[in-house]
Design brief:
85% helix, MetI-like fold, mainly alpha, globular
Length: 244
């Protein structure tokens, strides 16, 4: 309770300092509105953005599912097969290092403007962290555990189910938690750069119109949704951690 109280007080203090800075003229409300101004438009912004947020979340979910569905098996394969890791991992790391925003114009050029572009952008942003984290987690599994299980007569399926899967599970859950943030980032950027609907498109229009309170309110809504999803995955990680 003491920690929560300190955290709440720090947030209140930060908001009060922000409000005072705007009212005193230290911050220009054209670009950084006061919290009170954001609060006044929050309800209307929430009502206006819910359909757009749902559209963005659909694109994020499709891209996230594609990234996890492809990235998890690929990471397990690269982590468990030394030859595959030695051959393919340098390419994965190189592609991971490319700024993904450079790929968005090519995706838009090929697929046009719409659902497929944003979903594919979300998948491209999310898949590389999944592959890299799971491959690293798989390679970090203690080989002694496998040796002991095999020496006790465990089959390959039993080794995978009772030894490798529990050992790799934390890496899988961590990768999934990281990937959801990257997937939403990819979907929002695609909507901003090559979209005609969704939260990214709406936030871009709001920014160009210099409607700062609405932009801050929309940012807070998207951030709250993203944080909620990450906290849910963290809770799932803790629950499954106890199962291990």
């Amino acid at each position: 309770m003491k920690v929560l109280a300190c955290q709440a007080l720090s947030v209140v203090a930060a908001l009060a300092a922000w409000e005072a800075a705007v009212r005193s003229g230290a911050l220009d409300p054209t670009f950084i509105p006061a919290p009170s101004a954001i609060l006044r438009v929050f309800g209307a912004t929430l009502t206006d953005t819910l359909p757009r947020l749902g559209d963005t979340l659909l694109k994020t979910l499709l891209g996230y599912a594609l990234a996890v569905g492809v990235g998890v098996p690929a990471g397990l394969l690269l982590g468990s097969r030394p030859t595959a890791h030695a051959v393919a991992m340098p390419y994965v790391v190189a592609l991971y290092g490319i700024p993904k925003i450079l790929i968005l114009p090519w995706i838009a050029l090929i697929f046009g403007i719409g659902l497929s572009t944003a979903a594919l952008a979300a998948a491209v942003f999310a898949i590389f962290p999944v592959v890299v984290l799971i491959a690293a987690g798989t390679r970090d599994v203690d080989p002694t555990l496998v040796t002991v299980a095999v020496s006790m007569g465990a089959s390959r399926a039993q080794v995978g189910r009772k030894v490798l899967f529990p050992a790799v599970l934390p890496s899988v859950l961590t990768a999934m938690r990281v990937a959801v943030v990257f997937a939403m980032l990819g979907a929002l950027l695609a909507e901003m750069l090559a979209g005609n609907r969704g939260m990214g498109f709406q936030m871009q229009r709001t920014a160009l119109a210099f409607r700062a309170p609405e932009l801050f309110a929309a940012t807070a809504i998207v951030s709250a949704v993203s944080i909620s999803v990450v906290l849910f995955l963290e809770h799932l990680n803790q629950r499954l951690g106890r199962w291990r």
